[in-house]
């Protein structure tokens, strides 16, 4: 099976089936809906919602059953770029864990940025101790996003044609790099989205709920996007790029600070090639343990995502802007719809009140039960597609689904709504000041330490669009 492709007739079949299913469900739950001429619109909407929640994981599972087993990657070098900030206590464990990766050749580039502890000294000491570790330090300006500047410095230093970008709190399965690189080569891709799980799942109730959320986001949403070659964001916590794709983009965005630099680079990578998902390339990232930190993180993501969609708005609906024709007509419009949904979050409360007032508590209770049942069906349908034990992490807390649905979900929606409106404010401010997107820190090395040219991994010849 070809990776990252999904025929249009299958999408049409899913939509048609959802519409057909929506008709009897609509009649069963609310016969009064058929008293006017708009019943078919409501049936279609309900059916599409059912298809989005239930049919989508079923399709992902069916496609994954036909997924080819990828051959081991060739001996292509990978440079791990690890921006470091105030991680003196954990940096050694992180580096020594990365050195256990099965893939070689490999180098780890530690780029300290603005630390106030002993991170810089420790990074230099690790570079002296291990031949595969190199260290650098950078002091970004107050207007720059430090992680992007540090990443760009690391990309410029890299000796190898493939870059694995990691956060300083991310750990990997031992074969994660080999799995991601195999997908990159097999798909002739410019970037690969990897599969993240929670490093601290037992930290609190909120980390357990995030474990379920990450399972659904990585193994449902990302895989579904990959079927249309419409992966919107390769997470900054763990993602793989061709070095040439990063260089062509000019590096990761360093300013404005309130922009999603990982989403921006993913979309820039889409201009040069496809961006598939490597489900078996598993990494573990540390997540917030308190509700306050969690809501602040999601508000920040909402703001940066809104800004990124605005800056790439010219690609919405345009096939010619992207390597894949699907990103402009499927991926970005869906992301725009998510942003609009986040902006209109409070409308959901009004909708629930109207539902209670017009249909009574019975209908509201049925809707809540249907939502909870759909979440359970999603996990049940996804379980067979999760071949590796680590990918099943969120299934351990299936019994928290009611909390995820009726407590966690609304709280996250409120945070994303606040963040989306902050993103609108940032867009207005950006336009008022006439600021430009900046990508500082990328200074290319023309040769390695022995004087040999730095290699670049070329793309295989692509099939015409």
Model description:
By secondary structure, the protein is an alpha/beta fold. Among the domains are: 1-68, no CATH class; 78-294, Spore Coat Polysaccharide Biosynthesis Protein SpsA, Chain A, CATH 3.90.550.10. The chain is 52% helix and 11% strand. The protein has 14 helices and eight strands. It has helices at 8-29, 39-65, 91-98, 119-129, 146-157, 176-186, 205-227, 243-249, 261-270, 291-311, 325-343, 345-359, 361-382, 401-433, and strands spanning 78-84, 106-113, 133-138, 162-166, 171-172, 191-198, 238-242, 277-285. The protein has an eight-stranded mixed β-sheet with strand order 3-2-1-4-7-6-8-5, with helices on both faces. Strand 2, helix 4 and strand 3 form a beta-alpha-beta unit. Helix 2 (39-65) packs parallel to helix 13, helix 7 crosses helix 14 (401-433) and helix 11 (325-343) packs across helix 14. It is globular. Mean pLDDT is 81; it is low at 1-11, 17-29 and 459-465.
Key attributes of the depicted protein:
465 residues; disordered N terminus; alpha/beta; 8-stranded mixed beta sheet; 14 helices; globular; Spore Coat Polysaccharide Biosynthesis Protein SpsA, Chain A
> Biggest sheet, strands in spatial order?
3-2-1-4-7-6-8-5
Beta fraction: 5-15%
| Poorly predicted regions | 1-11, 17-29, 459-465
Please report the distance between the alpha carbons of the first and last residues: 19 Å
Series of H and E elements: HHEHEHEHEEHEHEHHEHHHHH
